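Chain and conformation:
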Amino acid sequence: MDTLTADFDTIAPINAGNLTVRLAESQQEIAAAQALRYRVFYEEMDAVPTPAMRILRSDFDNFDEVCDHLLVICEDRADLPCGVVGTYRILRRSVAMRGEGFYSADEFNLRPLLENDGEIMELGRSCVDVDHRTRPTMRLLWQAIAAYVHHYQIEVLFGCACLPGTDPTELRLPLSYLYHHHLAPKEIRPRALEKRYVDLNSFPKEDIDFRTAWKTLPPLIKGYLRLGGFVGDGAVVDPQFNTTDASIVVKTKLITEKYFRHYERSAKWSSD
């Protein structure tokens, strides 16, 4: 099956120093992203691999066959497969509806998103090598995502964002904060599937200290919220990844035109 769905001619590589961010162009590069995901999710974060994953030392599923794989490649990391030090997995509605749908539909009812017109895309499987978790690396990833959004005229980004741990009672503060301050508008609000639903609302709003709650959020969730992101209704415990997952939704029109112009300009300059 052809796994490379993006238009490489119009999403140019973006370079910064010894780093390049671009879409995977071969099965070998996709395998390199899967190897990075295995190291981060299963060896570092103690997720539970399937027997096949453990043998191959690779994180993979059927969605890898239809997704676009965004890569950060470091020219100095000959010790890593293809030099891949960061990755994001992208699935557009126009591609998902020709196959198995969206990955996060296993945890959340996405009907409100699907009922909206226009292109939407799911972001997932985000990870960066421990030695490259820096602002420049994340800036490159988001420059490429911004270019991708513009090229495919994406109106809504969404996906799952993880909080560490599988005991929701230990996550009452961050989950309640997300509910009271960042709940998505009803028309784009996914809801955790009933059989897996964990209520976000455990603390009254007036009992939540904003600064303390903000500090408990993982960096990735903070990043989405800074982009104007929202969370869906309810969370889901994922025992395989040892996480509690929230649904994240970002309306791209809420990200200012100035922000996108900045990243488009940066992408153009660094790829010339």
Q: What stands out?
A: The beta strands are 14-16, 19-23, 68-74, 84-92, 108-109, 119-128, 154-164, 191-192, 230-238, 243-251.
